[in-house]
Design goal:
The complex is a heterodimer of chains A (334) and B (326). With 334 residues, chain A is α/β, with parallel strands linked by helices. Chain A has one domain: Rossmann fold (3-Layer(aba) Sandwich). Chain A contains 11 helices and 12 strands. In chain A, helix 4 runs parallel beside helix 6 and helix 5 crosses helix 6. Chain A is globular. Chain A starts with a strand and ends in a 17-residue tail after the last strand. In chain B, helix 3 crosses helix 4 and helix 5 packs parallel to helix 6. Chain B is built from 10 helices and 12 strands. The relative contact order of chain B is 0.14. In chain B, 30% of the residues lie in helices and 22% in strands. The mean pLDDT of chain B is 90. In chain B, the strands form 2 sheets. Chain B has an 8-stranded mixed beta sheet with strand order 6-7-8-3-9-10-12-11, with helices on both faces. A 4-stranded antiparallel beta sheet of chain B has the order 2-1-4-5. Chain B starts with 8 loop residues before the first strand and ends with a helix. Chain B is globular, with a radius of gyration of 21 Å. Chain B is of the alpha/beta class and 326 residues long. At the A-B interface, helix 6, helix 7, helix 8, helix 9 and helix 10 of A face helix 6, helix 7 and helix 9 of B.
Chain lengths: 334, 326
């Protein structure tokens, strides 16, 4: 059972510390990704999605970012215990990352070929130049770019093409885990559709597992097998896509996210947005983090952190469902 | 729409061509005819670079058009002198996309909102202006305690509310909303959309809503215009466009939206090949021809006219020409 997991994060806590304040970015999250599966990590700006990704890559800003506790197991290795040198062998080779903005994640003064070759050479020192070149060309044609364009610079490519280059770079070492941080947010819908279909096809062909960070539930429905919804540094709901989209129970925050999206099928005059704003991560509420915005807020929500309610594959972090949980809850249940 | 009424805003063959170095012409807006009636919301959709923002700004003459006419209440405002135009600016306002760069960071919230009222000098006293600014803050749902805050202290949703309050300060009739929710998170986006729709009802506003997000545009608009490379390729009532899209580009655009609906998980996107081509020195013919699956020799050589194929449903496509005769 354990061996099916490619990534297993346990009780991860991350803070950003400056002289002025301490920001609690991630407050004890658990995440699991099965081999060959795609996990969607959904949430709004500031929920801690990118911090999660950076923690896995061990790329948190050195001065301010601190991992307080937790374990990140990646295929029998504990990433947080690796030395910087060992980590470099994993990063880019076995775990690769695609960043949100293709315009800024490419080096403007290096040709596309040099940038892809850099990743190959770093992890395969014994390859000859010809072999490296060959792999660059295969990588480019894999993402639908003519290999003849390899000597061009990033500014000669359009936004969608740049994102393809970034994806080629990430996949060139055939990683076991691909972290995609909002890979299509900067792209137009028709280009987004092209890139999403390409990612899905490549993922299935190479068999990588994937962590897909997004704020778009539509992308989750199309691409992901499992989902985790993040809010104020916590996973408030997780499960398979079917648990989330068709399950009977839904965390009030997830429900709010669904209600905020204008539907294409029904004609409604008003949306039902979530009131208010995400709490300040340097000053989180004592009880449930979502309580100040929640329609179903009860006394217990304000005073006590909710415990995780587990029902098969579906987990919820909410007092509303505590009664029905089979797991021992602090409240008296049936 | 009854033809007896004068449209609030009408454009006649409106063009904006930008001259580039070396004399090449960039066709940003290439002959747009549209009518917006009072109280309507027209949505303008298209991908980046299709000219939708330029269109919005050209209508307000924030960018001077190259040729064509802009009519406001039936009066041609294309050639108005700047003094006269300034008078009209009270009626014609704009809300910008980026709530971070469209607000002066060195002015406090109330100063930003009051700025236009000071410029246009329509109020008897300073205190009247600040009273009105406070009312506007209530109207857009900004707590009055933020009046003396600076924009950097506020989040994107609140900043966008400042932009909306500022646009409303002179009681405009027509507002161009240039991607007002694109920079916001979904839950905040929904709050702002609700606010804009409520304001339209309460104050009788007419919007031109420019966006790339089709689900947003369907939600808020009565009528939708789809743009591609400076041209309108299809225009119809919102429901009609979504249930019966005719232009191949509109179809592709609609099918490319990932819907948050698990039952559509295995539905494939209708992918269109390639990317938007260059708007520089375009040749006559359908702008979409290079990416279109149904392209024929009829599509190139001459521009394709917008034809009314059903009531109030206009399409510019050679495939739909036959249906006109029916």
């Amino acid at each position: 059972m354990k061996n099916d997991l490619i990534l297993d994060i346990k009780n991860l806590r991350v803070i950003y510390q400056t002289d002025l304040e301490t920001v609690e970015a991630i407050n004890g999250i658990d995440l699991k990704i099965n081999k060959g599966k795609t996990l969607g990590l959904v949430g709004e700006t500031g929920a801690g999605k990118t911090t999660t990704a950076l923690s896995i890559m061990r790329l948190l800003p050195e001065k301010t970012g601190k991992i307080l506790s937790g374990e990140i197991h990646f295929d029998r290795q504990e990433l947080l215990k690796l030395s910087p040198l060992e980590m470099r062998k994993v990063r880019g080779n076995r775990i690769a990352m695609v960043f949100q903005d293709p315009m800024t994640s490419l080096n403007p003064v290096m040709t596309v070929r040099e940038q892809i070759a850099e990743a190959i050479k770093l992890h395969n020192a014994n390859l000859s130049n010809d072999e490296v070149d060959q792999r660059v060309e295969t990588a480019l044609s894999m993402v639908g770019i003519l290999p003849s364009r390899k000597n061009e610079y990033p500014h000669q490519f359009s936004g969608g093409m740049k994102q393809r280059v970034v994806i080629a770079m990430a996949l060139v070492c055939e990683p076991d885990l691909l972290i995609a941080d909002e890979p299509t947010t900067a792209l137009d819908v028709t280009i987004q559709a092209q890139v999403l279909m390409m990612i899905r096809e490549l993922r299935d062909r190479i068999g990588t597992s994937m962590l897909m960070i997004t704020h778009d539930l539509g992308i989750v429905a199309k691409i992901c097998d499992d989902v985790a919804v993040m809010y104020a540094g916590q996973i408030v709901e997780s499960g398979t896509v079917f648990d989330l989209f068709t399950g009977e129970k839904r965390h009030p925050y997830t429900q709010g996210l669904f209600d905020s999206i204008p539907s294409l099928n029904t004609r409604s005059n008003r949306l039902k947005p979530i009131q208010g704003l995400m709490p300040d991560p340097s000053n989180l509420p004592k009880g449930c983090c979502f309580a100040p915005r929640c329609q179903h807020c009860m006394d217990i929500c304000i005073n006590e952190r909710p415990k995780q309610v587990i029902e098969g594959t579906h987990t919820l972090l909410c007092h509303l469902f505590a009664d029905s949980s089979a797991a021992p809850a602090p409240q008296e249940g049936e | 729409m009854d033809s007896a009424r004068t449209p609030l805003i009408e454009t006649v063959n409106l063009k904006k061509l930008f001259k580039l170095n070396g004399g090449a012409l960039l066709h940003a807006v290439d002959g747009i005819n549209m009518k917006v009636y009072s109280g309507e919301t027209i949505g303008v959709v298209g991908e980046s670079g299709c000219g939708k923002s330029t269109l919005g700004r050209t209508i307000l003459r924030l960018i001077e058009p190259t040729s064509g006419q802009i009519l406001y209440n039936g009066v041609d405002i294309t050639k108005l002198k700047s003094g006269k135009m300034r008078e009209l600016r009270k009626d014609l306002q704009i809300i910008f996309q980026d709530p971070y760069s469209s607000i002066d960071p060195r002015k406090s919230v109330v100063e930003v909102i009051a700025e236009y009222m000071f410029i246009h000098n329509t109020f008897p006293s300073k205190s009247a202006i600040y009273n009105r600014a406070a009312e506007l803050m209530d109207l857009v749902g900004l707590a009055r305690r933020y009046a003396n805050s600076y924009p950097h202290e506020l989040d994107g949703g609140r900043r966008q509310r400042i932009g909306i309050a500022r646009a409303l300060s002179l009681n405009p009739k027509f507002i161009v909303c240039d991607e007002p929710v694109s920079a916001l998170d979904v839950s905040i986006q929904a709050q702002i959309l609700n606010l804009l729709m409520d304001l339209a009802d309460e104050l009788g506003l007419t919007y031109m809503f420019v966006t790339h997000d089709l689900s947003v545009v369907k939600h808020i608009s009565n009528k939708i215009m789809v743009m591609y490379l400076g041209k309108c390729v299809e225009m119809a009532a919102s429901d009609e466009l979504f249930t019966n899209p005719l232009h191949p580009y509109t179809k592709a655009l609609l099918s490319a939206i990932p819907e948050p609906d698990i039952s559509k998980r295995d539905e494939e996107f209708v992918l269109i090949k390639g990317e938007i081509s260059s708007p520089i020195n375009v040749k006559p013919g359908c702008r979409f021809a290079a990416r279109c699956d149904y392209v024929s020799e009829k599509c190139t050589g001459r521009d394709i006219e917008l034809k009314e194929v059903a009531k109030e449903h206009f399409v510019a496509c050679t495939l739909c020409n036959q249906e006109v005769g029916k």
